[in-house]
Amino acid sequence: MLQLFKELNIEDRLQWKEHTLMFNQPEKPGTYSRFDFPPIPAPFNGIVAILRNNDMLTWPEKIKFAIGLLPAIIKGQRYVEEMDKYTWTEWLQKQGIPERVNKEVFIAMSKALNFIDPDEISATILLTALNRFLQETNGSKMAFLDGAPPERLCQPVVDHVAERGGQVLLNKPLKEFVLAEDGSVEALKIRGIDGEPDELVKADVYVSAMPVDIMKLLMPDPWKQQAFFEKLDGLEGVPVINVHLWFDKKLTDVDNLLFSRSPLLSVYADMSNTCREYEDPDKSMLELVLAPAKDWIGKSDEDIVEATMLELAQLFPKDIPNGAKLLKSKVVKTPRSVYKATKGRQEYRPSQETPIRNFYLTGDYTMQMYLASMEGAVLSGKLTAQAVAKNAPKHIAEKNASA
Ligand SMILES: Cc1cc2nc3c(=O)[nH]c(=O)nc-3n(C[C@H](O)[C@H](O)[C@H](O)COP(=O)(O)OP(=O)(O)OC[C@H]3O[C@@H](n4cnc5c(N)ncnc54)[C@H](O)[C@@H]3O)c2cc1C
């Protein structure tokens, strides 16, 4: 992601925050427990951050956790991948780490990373994140984009493509892959919008950047029998809900991401403090993630806002329910978001190269080391581009042969 911002020359749009992880303390409503990372290289900044925090973990718990983590630190990514056969809770038990560590820290972290609980999430996900925190000095440092992503991040990407002779066409949903006799892609059928007819688009090489659930829906029948594509059945998007709340007064001055550690909510931030576009010295604008969302995705917006406000009463007891008035709310439901990273999912993640000679996959669910995240999506795009470039001579030869 950072490299992308650099290439687009928009690094100044990243608003970096103090290097700390902040957790609400349910037993002391309205207060925070912090893991402060000092400005020294990794892994020492992370170790100091953990050792200095005495609100959430006792010394015996910290020592047991550090010992449990040793194999991941010493053996690295190979061990991390092998642990995909366990959920995070199973892995903690296997390593003799007390269950309280889960409750105190990792329910919040697994909800933040994949919108599910530690009893479901693969140990690989948490271990990958922890390894990054321990290996990269700024691996856990938060940055907020300074405004809405479509204008502040996507538009520069579009401009970059256009300046180099490319085109980005919006509102062109894929309806069908039209196949040639040998099962390769002959054309894309694009659904006409607003009464426009469908159209066919032909190319030398085709890349799907659609989410895995949509890719499965549009999968041509002849591909479904191939083991490579059959594996995608093992991946499915997880539901999540985003809640945006506007208040008539300031609830907090915290200028960072917060882990709510409450049953329904995951991470949240007061965007009036964290993000230039929503800056307001007098009123708060909270953005919250509600997860796990499987029991809530079918509920009404009113029910969701009501339940969120009940939890906010624990986080901001001075102002909610009495004091601050809710001016406006917006609920964004995503029934199938990133792939649900339960144990054993790694083996279902496909490579970017497929058995179809002119067809590639990309997206965060394809195999890459940065999990289901924006960073993972960007890395998968780079891996796809590398694969296409590597195969370019073959594609050119095929094109010349068919001309
Ligand atoms: C609530 C929420 C909070 C998140 N917070 C973070 C965060 O803080 N940090 C982070 O790194 N990640 C975060 N993520 C995850 C991040 O958004 C994803 O990992 C990332 O967007 C995946 O990118 P992608 O390109 O693989 O897929 P997507 O971003 O899902 O892109 C797929 C695209 O395919 C398009 N599409 C769908 N159907 C068709 C069709 N038929 N034809 C053509 N196009 C189609 C869609 O419109 C979409 O633009 C969050 C996700 C959610 C839901």
TrEMBL record:
Q: Which reaction does it catalyse?
A: 2 a plastoquinone + 15-cis-phytoene = 9,9',15-tri-cis-zeta-carotene + 2 a plastoquinol
Q: Which InterPro entries match?
A: Amino_oxidase (IPR002937), FAD/NAD-bd_sf (IPR036188), Phytoene_desaturase (IPR014102), Zeta_carotene_desat/Oxidored (IPR050464)
Q: In which pathway does it act?
A: Carotenoid biosynthesis; lycopene biosynthesis
Gene Ontology terms for molecular function:
phytoene dehydrogenase activity
Q: Where is the Amine oxidase domain?
A: 1-388
Question: What are the entry keywords?
Answer: Carotenoid biosynthesis, Chromoplast, Membrane, Oxidoreductase, Plastid
Q: What class of enzyme is it?
A: oxidoreductase
EC number of this enzyme: 1.3.5.5
Has keyword Ribonucleoprotein?
no
Q: Which GO terms describe its biological process?
A: carotenoid biosynthetic process
UniProt-annotated location(s): Membrane; Plastid, Chromoplast
List the GO terms this entry assigns under cellular component, sorted alphabetically.
Answer: membrane
Its placement in the membrane is given as: Peripheral membrane protein
The residue range of the signal peptide is: none
Give the record's family classification.
Answer: Belongs to the carotenoid/retinoid oxidoreductase family.
Under which name does UniProt file this protein?
15-cis-phytoene desaturase, chloroplastic/chromoplastic
The record lists the organism as Glaucocystis cf. nostochinearum
Organismal lineage: Eukaryota, Glaucocystophyceae, Glaucocystales, Glaucocystaceae, Glaucocystis
